[in-house]
């Protein structure tokens, strides 16, 4: 992971111009961005110290990480990622339970009969879904357990890819969220396999993965084009299960009185029609990944 830290620092300093960083402009630069020496000055550390950090030959203290975050104008998500890479956050323990949705979260999902909702686990694995979510995205029950992965579907499933009116923006956000997962658990073999697979199969993923952009799932808006319902603008929120922070419930809603809200009603009816085939007989007609095999 030391190489990941160095790559991240290099990527961020190369995007920061001297005037933006509060330094005099210099027209003689052969490459864009800041030099190592300039980052060191801004962070009040020696050039040798910073060079060793980039090369993975030295660990950074929390004060140095704070100074680097300020010097490189990192966002809150990027700063959190920097600390994760440096081992300053204990992170989530290894050897966690497998891809089994928590029963309490399953019941909450079943109660959301009007709202498309998914439960995502580590590596964006789709642990459970309700009928409106299956009607919106795809028939998850027809996919194998390994295929039920949100980032993989965004990049590899033509129907899911076509659902997003601004696919590049959505896909880059997925890559940034996966980057944060990699910092929290860099030795997860499932995550490594997923990154290797998508890097080999999709040039956009390969390019964006190298950008070292990071983000966390929180909330936002999705513009969708459903093949049956039509145009939808949906707000989404990620609710983390505090008993198992690896599991998040993602719910998509629309403001009452809007065409998208009416579209969700139609989507609910569509989900009710297909609920008999979108899940393995669990309450509410949704589905989940059973078993306790490790991710």
| Element-level helix/strand string | HHHHHHEEHHHHHHEEEHE
N-end to C-end Cα span: 20 Å
CATH architecture of the largest domain: 2-Layer Sandwich
Q: Beta-strand percentage?
A: 5-15%
Which structural class best describes the helix and strand composition? Answer: alpha+beta
Poorly predicted segments: 90-98, 275-286, 288-295
Total number of helices: 13
Tally of discrete structural domains: 2
Strand tally is 6
* Shape call: elongated
| Proportion in helices | 40-55%
Q: What spatial order of strands do you see in the largest sheet?
A: 3-4-5-1-2-6
- Looking at the structure, the CATH topology of the largest domain is Beta-Lactamase
State the major sheet. 6 strands, antiparallel
Rg from alpha-carbon coordinates: 21 Å
Protein name: Helix-turn-helix domain-containing protein
Region (Disordered): 275-295
Domain HTH cro/C1-type: 33-79
Biased composition (Gly residues): 278-289
In short:
The chain has 13 helices and six strands.
């Amino acid at each position: 992971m030391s190489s990941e830290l160095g790559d991240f620092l290099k990527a961020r300093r190369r995007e920061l111009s001297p005037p933006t960083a509060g330094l005099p402009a210099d027209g003689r630069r052969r490459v864009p961005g800041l030099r190592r020496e300039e980052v060191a000055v801004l962070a009040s550390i020696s050039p040798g110290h910073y060079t060793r950090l980039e090369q993975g030959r030295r660990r950074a203290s929390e004060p140095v990480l704070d100074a680097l975050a300020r010097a490189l104008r990192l966002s809150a998500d990027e700063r959190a990622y920097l600390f994760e890479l440096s081992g300053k956050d204990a992170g989530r323990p290894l050897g966690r339970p497998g891809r089994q949705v928590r029963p309490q979260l399953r019941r909450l999902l079943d109660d959301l009969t009007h709202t498309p909702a998914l439960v995502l686990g580590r590596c964006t694995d789709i642990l459970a879904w309700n009928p409106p979510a299956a009607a919106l995205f795809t028939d998850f029950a027809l996919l194998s357990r390994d295929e039920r992965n949100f980032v993989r579907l965004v990049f590899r499933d033509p129907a899911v890819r076509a659902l997003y009116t601004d696919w590049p923006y959505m896909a880059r956000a997925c890559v940034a969220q996966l980057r944060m997962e990699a910092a929290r658990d860099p030795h997860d073999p499932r995550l490594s396999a997923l990154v290797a697979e998508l890097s080999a199969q999709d040039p956009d993923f390969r390019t964006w993965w190298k950008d070292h952009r990071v983000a966390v799932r929180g909330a936002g808006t999705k513009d969708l084009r459903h093949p049956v319902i039509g145009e939808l603008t949906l707000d989404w929120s990620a609710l983390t299960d505090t008993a198992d922070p690896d599991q998040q419930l993602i719910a998509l809603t629309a403001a009452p009185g809007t065409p998208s809200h009416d579209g969700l009603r139609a989507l609910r009816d569509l989900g009710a029609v297909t609920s008999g085939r979108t899940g393995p007989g669990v309450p509410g007609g949704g589905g989940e990944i059973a078993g306790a095999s490790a991710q």
